Amino acid sequence: MSDVERVEAERCAVFMKALVYVSRIQIVKALRTGPATVSDLADLLEIDVTTASHHLRVLFHAAITLTERDGKYIYYSLNPDLTGAKRRLDELNFGCCKLDLGP
User: Nearest CA to 28 among 5, 60, 1?
Assistant: First the structure.
């Protein structure tokens, strides 16, 4: 395996590890409708704010989500680099593979 292939495989592994929990996939699906705060997502998924915050931190460090501050609120959104030029919200393209988010 070349160095480039190894780096690509490691990058793909980071994405897959970040999406190993059902709650994280639910967060990604929820963010298809637009940016949301930790509280918004916790309420939507009926989980604790601290749990939602932890999952969002993992998704952020894997570059699946981005953040934007608006006053005292931080809004999370999907990384547009993963949704493609046409902003396909039914899948995330990691380069090594695609995750079909379904309807």
Answer: 60
